[in-house]
Structures are given as C-alpha cells and as structure tokens.
Design brief:
The complex is a heterodimer of chains A (about 210) and B (about 190). With about 210 residues, chain A is an alpha+beta fold. Chain A has 2 domains: about 35 residues; about 140 residues, no CATH class. Helices cover about 45% and strands about 25% of the residues of chain A. Chain A contains 7 helices and 6 strands; from the N terminus they run ααβααβαββββαα. In chain A, a hairpin with an 8-residue loop joins strand 4 and strand 5. Chain B is α+β, with helices and mostly antiparallel strands and about 190 residues long. The N and C termini of chain B lie far apart (about 70 Å). The chains are: A alpha+beta (about 210), B alpha+beta (about 190). At the A-B interface, strand 3 and helix 6 of A face strand 1, helix 2 and helix 5 of B. Strand 3 of chain A pairs antiparallel with strand 1 of chain B.
Chain lengths: ~210, ~190
Amino acid sequence: MKTPAAKTFRLRFWPVFWILCLAGFSLAAAGVWGCLHVSQDCAGLRDTLLQSGPGQGRKIVEIRLGGWTFGLARLALRWVNLGTLEPEARDTIQALQALRGVEVGVYRLARPLEAAGADGRLDAADEAMFQRGWECVTRVATGHELVAVYVPASALETTGFKLCVATLVGQDLVIAAARANLEPLLSLALRHARQEGLHLPLAIEAGGPAGKSL
Amino acid sequence: MNTIKTWVAGFSILALSASLNAALNASASGRVNFGKLPSSSAGKPFVEVHIKSNLVSMVARLAEKAEPEVAEALRGLRQVDVNVIGLGEDNRAAVDTRLQAIRTDLESQGWDCLVKVREARNDVAVYVKTNGDEALLGLAVLVVEENQQAVLANLVGDIRPEKISLVAEKFGIDPLKKIGEELKKQSR
C-alpha cells in the first residue's frame, strides 16, 4: 500500500526527470552542433568568399572549440604538474592555457581563383567583415593566392585578442579564427624564435620577467 | 510647411558642416587617402597593410615594460597604411598617374618634401606634414622600385622618419623597413 506522499513524489519525479534528460540532450546536441559550425562572423566571411566568384563552393569541414571547451581544458590542466613534463609538452600546455577559442573551416571553390578576380573578392570580404565590426589589417594577393587578416574594429584587449584569417590558394579556402591571451603566447613565440635564431614581428617580451619565466 | 523647410535647412547645414569638418580634419591630420590603387590582372602581387590606432596602442601597451623605446615611438603613432602594388603592363601607367596626382595633392595641402629622387627606373619621394616647428602630423612615402613595384606608405601621428624602421620591424612590414633604413642613413 503506497502512501499519498510516495504517490505524489512518483508523480513529480518522472516529469522532472524527463525534462532534465531532454534539457541535457538538447544542450549536448547544441554543443556538438556548435563544434561542427563556425561562428557567424566566420560564416559571413565564408559565404562572401565562396559566393563572390563564379560557381558555388562547398564545405569540407568546420570545427569550433569555444570558451567552454578551453575553460574545461584549463580546469583539467590545473592538476598537471608542468615541472615533470618535457619542454615541448610544457609549451603546448601553456599555449593551450592561453587560448580562449579556436575555429577552422576548410572549403573548396568550384573554380580556382583567377588573378583578375582576387581584388574583387577581397573587397567583398572586407565589406562583409566591416559590417560585422571587423577591420582588415593585411591583405595580400599574389596571382592565385590571397590572404586577408582581420581584427575587431573596437579597442583591442591583450587578454582576449581576437583574430580572423582567410587564405585562398587555388581552389582551397581556409578560414581560421582564434581568441587568446596574447602575452603568454607572444612570450612563448619569442622564446622559440630566439632558440631558432629567427626574428619575430610583434615579438615583444610581454610582461617582462613573467614572460621569461615560461 | 514652414516647419518642414526649417527642418530640412537645419539638417542640410548640419550635414554640410559635418562633411566640411571631416575634410578639414583629414587634410590637417597627416592622413593621406591613396584611393583605390589599380592592381595588375597579370597576377602581380599586391599587399595592403592598414594598422589603426587600436592595434598600435595594444602593441605599445605590450612593449611598455620590455621595450620602452618602441613604446615611446608607437605612442605618437595613430595609423600605418602601406600599399605595395606589383606593376604590370596593364597598370603601370595608371599607377604612375595616381602617384603624380597624390604628389600634387600633398604639395597643395602643405606637405613638405623631405626627399625626392628620380631616376630612370626608380622614383622616391618622402613628404612630411608638420604642425609648427616640432610636432609631426604625418609622413608619406611614395616609391617606385625598378619599375616593378610601387610602395605607398602613410604614417599618421608624431613619428620621426628615423623611427620608421623600428615601427616597421615591430609590425613586420618589410617594404616600410627598407624605406626606414634609407631615411635613417640620410638623416645621419
């Protein structure tokens, strides 16, 4: 014989359980969907570059790892003892800790880029990104290759620096964007450049002694 | 009806004064509008670099501790524009005409010519815009190298010509670095 309290609990438990399951499933599905699609800014750039030439291009792969993924990774990496690791592994972990988000999309154009059309494509891409609050910092076109680099038009933060790069070589288009804490990344890059005897543009020993400790 | 006319007249005056103000600021700010430069359809390379104040101030902030000299040089800088255009048969004449027009504009707007070298295949001109005796408002460099490429650079802000190579090195702009080194030699 069940008491009225147990009956009420059973009546309340199952709907809540199913709602929670549905919410969990929806969140997981949204997470997976988000990981397989680039952000709206990159999508805008992709659409412009694919559609501003003859024929339609196609997507090969899109991957996005956002703030949640890198946040969880940073949380997990707190338990890793960096002192016991090889220098390469330590550098990789430190670079991962500096990253806040990464997305990459690979596409194939219907026809190879023509030298005469590169300028027009870049103009269209600049316009599309400008409308989304990005500015072109560098654009390079050499025959069948083009590169465009964009940064946000607003004030730039070193702790959450955003960058978007598009490269088009022949028929292959790659769009990549990243958000990172610039100072540790620059220190890391500077140290590697020094080891290799290379000069690095924008290689500034960020944070002084903190940078050297890496 | 009169109210509408008053509003239209008011808006027209506002728009006119805004555009006049913008034009005056542009001519007094050390900024040069190179306009749309004709690229070659023969696959000759072109490079455009536009570094605005937000990126300049971020790099200056990063350089503050370790490289105060760089930070100091960058502090006066507000914008860097560099255009490199490969010259082909189809755009050489148009680029020459554009360069000539830019030179004429700069001279008519009170820019001082610092360096002018004209040879058969090379052409270099460096202009500065000053505000009084000390402060530099901008610097413009127009170069044609071996009739193969044209380099147009505009640095807006108080930047000494001898500091150009330092700025170019920090931003990784090789054509500007070359020009900066030449200017450094001349200033010695």
